[in-house]
Amino acid sequence: MYEQLIEKVEKYKSITIFKHQRCDGDALFSALGLRDYLACNYPAKRIMIAGNDIYDRYPYTEDLSSEDITGSLAIILDTANLERVDDKRFELAEEIIKIDHHPNLEPYGCLQFVDTAKAATSELLAEIMLCTELSSNKVPNSACKHLFSGILSDSLCFKTTSTTANTLITAGKLVKTGHFNPSDLVEMVFNDTLVDFQKATKLRTHLQVKGNLGYLLLNISDLAKLEMTANEAKNLVHEFGGIAELNVWCIIVQNNLGTYDASLRSKRGYIVNTIGQKFSGGGHPCAAGVKNLSIKEVNQLIDLLYEESIKKAID
User: Fold this and answer.
1) Average pLDDT, integer, range 240-248
2) Residue spans of alpha helices (H) in the chain
3) How many helices (H) and strands (E) are present in the chain, helices listed first?
């Protein structure tokens, strides 16, 4: 199944790994895991990670020149469409491979490995690395730890609706192969500072409830009082997933352009990505996003999410 992937890797002397803008844990850790795996098994090749966006909990970047990327094989991870790639110099690469777990609404590259049943791109990469076809290759401890961290991050420690039996089995294989303590990585991915905890506590006071919808609508003034950026606030959308009465929840924040961006979440059986698509957004069925909404569109979005929240859940 993965023979073509290996053939492409073996063909090139240099491989450049790309991820999406506003880098999250799955994007970064999948990139680090793939880099360590390729470097271990193909030591003569040059393996590089592109992009300037920082993941706050594990800040990491590399300084790449355009010459480094030109003629390389680009592997783009966890990125549904090319507009979202962090470093646009992927266009300088000779060929592109897509590896992702988002709906494949924009197929790109000479090869695509997309599986929406995976909780994270890190889960898909781990499955590739651990498959019997590649059993002659070594999966180094560092790659196992990075991919486990990526799965933890996107599954919120195995709590999201995208978590499956396969997710748990794959995570277990990574622990067994990598010989590490899972709790150490849980702390690294999820532990907050006291300041962050206090900010999240203040954020909760902005929750509004309508039917089985919970939403936060924050303008620039609200964000200033919370001492948060728009992205910091949106990244805390998971804080509201444990409320029993909510089937759908979202955080809507005003950006520097004066328009609004939103992160949408839902429990199993309540679909929010099709709602996001009505506003040129999208994502997973239970986790999606939209950008650059007018206040009129914000109100329309809230109405649609409310209607979804009071429906009977889809089996």
Assistant:
1) 96
2) 3-11, 25-41, 66-69, 121-130, 141-155, 165-178, 182-190, 194-204, 220-226, 230-234, 273-277, 295-309
3) 12, 11
Residue 138 makes CB contacts below 8 A (sequence gap 6+) with: 40, 41
Which tokens hold the place of 220?
A: 């620039």
pLDDT score at 65: 96
Check whether 307 has a pLDDT greater than 90.
Answer: yes
Question: Would you tell me the crossing angle of helices 25-41 and 141-155 to the nearest 10 degrees?
Answer: 160
Q: Give the DSSP letter of residue 18.
A: E
Cβ atoms 33, 147 nearer than 8 A: yes
- Quote the CA–CA distance of 98 and 75 in Å, as a whole number: 6
- Among left, alpha and beta (phi > 0; psi -120 to 50; other), residue 95 is beta
As given in the structure block, the two tokens for residue 145 are 């730890």
Q: What is the pLDDT of residues 170-210, one digit of tens each?
A: 999 999 999 999 999 999 999 999 999 999 999 999 999 99
Q: How would you classify the pairing of strands 73-77 and 95-100?
A: parallel
Report residue 267 as tokens: 């429990």
Task: Give the three-state DSSP class for 270.
Answer: coil
In the sheet where 287-293 sits, what is the strand order?
208-210, 213-218, 248-254, 260-266, 287-293, 282-284
Q: Is 58 left (phi over 0), alpha (psi -120 to 50) or beta?
A: beta
Q: In this structure, which amino acid lies at residue 314? A: I
Backbone angles phi, psi at 259, to 5 degrees: -90, -175
Copy the structure tokens of residue 83. Answer: 């507009």
The two structure tokens encoding residue 118: 């995976």
Question: What does the pLDDT average to over 258-263?
Answer: 97
Enter the pTM of the model: 0.92
| Residue 159: HSE in the Cβ half-sphere, 13 Å Cα cutoff | 12
- SS3 state at 290: strand
